[in-house]
User: Which sequence fits this backbone?
């Protein structure tokens, strides 16, 4: 039986593991219980800063700490990080201060809280900022591993985690996980499905069902959206000749946007995008949301057939 | 670098006022009004108190100074030149391609600048981060921040005000440059702020109100800030926008407008420059 876990738990575990570094500090905006920074807070209250319900202040307190030699990890819900976008832009990205921002409960998968809590644009907006690394891992192991690598990054980052549990893919395979390097989970020559976050699991399901129909898909976990693994993308364009991207995020500007922007300038191939089609979500369970938004494995399979039909 | 006398500080401020007028005139852009209102406080802070090294501007244990009203950069650059962080020749690069004196103060471009400001409402939060870092380090260094009175209309200022008091940041020191004018008009017309000292007091800060152009009062207020160690301290400085140049004084037109050739000549004459 596959172990199930939430990516936000991987983030919380990583912070605790990083605590041996005395320069690591944690910033909270009253959601540490949810983003899972609470474990660090309990163990190291002297290096945890409560910023109350004040995200704009939190990010710039992080900037001040980073400029003074500390390695700040700030977290709140993905949607509330957006309130401090300009602080991230002007106070963190512009002076290139290594503040690490984690937005939990990202995507429509977050579920019944409804559209006000379902960030579907975070990856797009942070991707536009120079210096900022943008990640959206798919399981707790890779979330922990990527977070553990952040103190060595030397630049700011945004990581989206998810609220709900998903299958664990990388148990014992931590060495595969590197910031900026996509991971090929399934090899196939007919199409490349490039996914991030929760949709990596849907992509795996789709590949399995496609195989029974004689279609061999490559599946890539593109956990780092910026910098994008363009070397891998170029090889996939050449090998498969068709690409489907899949993300629990708007089809505007996220992983699909990033992939499209690259391949049109380098090695254009037919492409389809699975994502939220320029609309807001609503209250429903996680699986119901994926179905409603067109993000399930059968939607991916349909997109694969469509894109293969477009191959020259 | 500290310990200048009152008369020396006053003379430094006069020289800086001349540079502010020259810089904005040369660039035919920039913000002379708010630079002239803040300049006496900046000179007092750097000349009397701030622990910083012009030969080692990145010294880790320096006091921080964050000009949150980062558009009032000519004042900051003039002080940095007087204090030897940059050269007077550098002042000629204000708003010029490749120059250390970027339009708004920028830590990536100019030695001695501790934060890249220019977007209002950000510096106090950043200063709070510097204060917390000093506390964790066990250092006695302070973080000084200056905001404008118009700037405190930004909601994020009050997030920081509440948080700094909650964390009892006795090493965080704020100046509010109350010159009464913002971009479009007088603050009274744009957004009345009512009792500013009472607001800071209600947020849990130690508060002192001074005349921001009286060097004795400014130095006294900086010394008073040192005595406050259990909470953040704020000096509310009543100032005059454009102070020292008659036609700029209390004139909203000179928030973000440069003097013409004729106006520069008048300004320099008023500031004691012999023709």
Assistant:
């Amino acid at each position: 039986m596959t172990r199930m876990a939430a990516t936000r738990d991987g983030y919380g575990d990583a912070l605790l593991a990083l605590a041996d570094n005395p320069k690591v500090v944690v910033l909270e905006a009253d959601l540490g219980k949810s983003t899972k920074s609470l474990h660090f807070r309990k163990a190291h209250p002297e290096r945890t800063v409560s910023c109350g319900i004040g995200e704009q202040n939190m990010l710039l307190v992080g900037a001040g700490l980073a400029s003074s030699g500390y390695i700040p990890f700030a977290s709140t819900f993905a949607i509330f990080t957006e309130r401090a976008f300009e602080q991230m832009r002007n106070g963190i990205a512009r002076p290139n201060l290594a503040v690490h921002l984690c937005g939990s409960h990202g995507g429509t998968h977050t579920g019944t809280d409804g559209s006000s809590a379902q960030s579907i644009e975070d990856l797009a907006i942070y991707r536009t900022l120079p210096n900022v690394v943008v990640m959206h891992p798919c399981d707790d192991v890779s979330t922990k591993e990527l977070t553990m690598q952040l103190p060595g990054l030397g630049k700011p980052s945004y990581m989206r985690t998810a609220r709900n549990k998903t299958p664990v893919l990388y148990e014992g395979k931590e060495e595969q996980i590197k910031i900026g390097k996509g991971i090929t989970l399934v090899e196939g020559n007919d199409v490349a499905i490039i996914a991030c976050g929760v949709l990596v699991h849907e992509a795996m399901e789709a590949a399995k069902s496609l195989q029974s129909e004689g279609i061999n898909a490559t599946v890539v976990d593109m956990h780092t959206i910026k910098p994008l693994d363009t070397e891998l993308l170029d090889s996939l364009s050449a090998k498969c000749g068709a690409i489907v991207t899949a993300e629990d995020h708007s089809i505007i500007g996220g992983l699909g946007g990033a992939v499209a922007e690259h391949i049109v300038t380098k090695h254009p191939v037919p492409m389809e995008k699975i994502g939220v089609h320029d609309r807001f979500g609503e209250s429903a369970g996680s699986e119901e949301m994926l179905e409603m938004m067109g993000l399930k494995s059968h939607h991916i399979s349909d997109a694969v057939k469509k894109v293969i039909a477009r191959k020259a | 670098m500290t310990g200048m006398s009152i008369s020396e500080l006053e003379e430094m401020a006069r020289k800086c006022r001349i540079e502010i007028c020259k810089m904005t005139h040369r660039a035919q852009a920039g913000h002379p009004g708010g630079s002239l209102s803040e300049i006496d406080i900046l000179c007092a802070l750097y000349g009397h108190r701030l622990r910083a090294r012009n030969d080692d501007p990145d010294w880790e244990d320096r006091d921080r100074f964050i000009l949150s009203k980062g558009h009032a950069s000519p004042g900051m650059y003039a002080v940095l030149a007087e204090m030897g962080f940059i050269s007077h020749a550098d002042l000629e690069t204000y708003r010029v391609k490749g120059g250390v004196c970027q339009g708004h103060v920028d830590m990536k471009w100019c030695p001695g600048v501790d934060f890249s400001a220019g977007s209002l409402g950000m510096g106090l939060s950043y200063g709070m981060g510097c204060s917390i870092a000093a506390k964790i380090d066990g250092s006695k260094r302070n973080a000084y921040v200056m905001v404008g009175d118009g700037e405190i209309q930004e909601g994020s200022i009050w997030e920081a005000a509440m948080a700094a008091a909650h964390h009892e940041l006795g090493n965080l020191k704020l100046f509010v440059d109350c010159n009464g004018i913002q971009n479009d008009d007088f603050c009274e017309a744009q957004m009345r702020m009512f009792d500013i000292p009472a607001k800071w007091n209600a947020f849990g800060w130690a508060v002192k109100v001074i005349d921001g152009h009286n060097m004795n009062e400014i130095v006294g207020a900086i010394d008073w800030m040192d005595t406050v160690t259990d909470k953040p301290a704020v000096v509310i400085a009543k100032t005059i926008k454009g102070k020292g140049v008659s036609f700029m004084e209390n004139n909203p037109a000179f928030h973000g407008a440069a003097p013409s050739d004729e106006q520069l000549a008048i300004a320099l004459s008023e500031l004691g420059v012999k023709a």
